[in-house]
Design a protein that fits this description.
Layout lengths: L10 H29 L3 H12 L3 E3 H7 L4 H13 L3 E5 L7 E5 L1 H21 L6 H22 L20
Antiparallel strand pairs: 1-3, 2-3
Helix pairs in contact: 1-5, 2-5, 3-4
Length: about 170
């Protein structure tokens, strides 16, 4: 028997994977362009602000990089920009002076709130609106299953608390 990694994709596997890549690329590119045009904010900056808000407005940089699915150096560049705009403040962690903590500022919270309505509308237009309620439910369950499997296979702690429906009380609900 051939190991599963060396056999060719079935047509269904190929279509599922190619479809995921195409939809991801197109939706991300469009969202980035729309948020940039409407709010002067790249999508990656919006996502970092959102993850900070969901995480209680303050996170260690290493944890923020993990939940934002960014490299630490990539996150540092983004936080440098957000800090220069006054959206985020970086300070030494009080418990561990070697670590840095990113904190969402009141200005950052307002910028996130102003972009959030547009972001939701565009996500619905570009992605969610093309699916039925049942399809959205099945897709959400599929993403959870895939993320759980990746976490289990890699030994990573689950990221679920910052992925999905859970919202921190401090997050604007616009």
């Amino acid at each position: 028997m051939t190991p599963s990694g060396s056999r060719p994709f079935t047509d269904e596997e190929e279509n599922a994977w190619a479809g995921f890549l195409a939809v991801h690329s197109l939706v991300i590119r469009e969202l980035d362009a729309l948020l940039g045009a409407e709010h002067g904010m790249p999508l990656v900056e919006y996502e970092v602000l959102l993850k900070l808000a969901i995480g209680g407005s303050q996170m260690r940089m290493s944890e923020l990089a993990d939940v934002a699915f960014l490299s630490r150096s990539g996150l540092t560049r983004i936080v440098d920009e957000l800090e220069s705009l006054g959206h985020v403040r970086r300070e030494r962690d009080e418990q561990d002076g070697r670590a840095l903590v990113a904190t969402l500022t009141p200005l950052g919270r307002r910028r996130l709130a102003s972009a959030r309505r547009s972001h939701r509308a565009h996500v619905r237009e570009l992605f969610l609106g093309h699916l039925t309620d049942d399809q959205r439910g099945a897709l959400a369950a599929s993403w959870r299953q895939i993320l759980d499997g990746i976490d289990a296979n890699t030994g990573r702690r689950p990221r679920r608390r910052l992925v999905g429906r859970r919202r921190a009380a401090s997050l604007p609900s616009r």
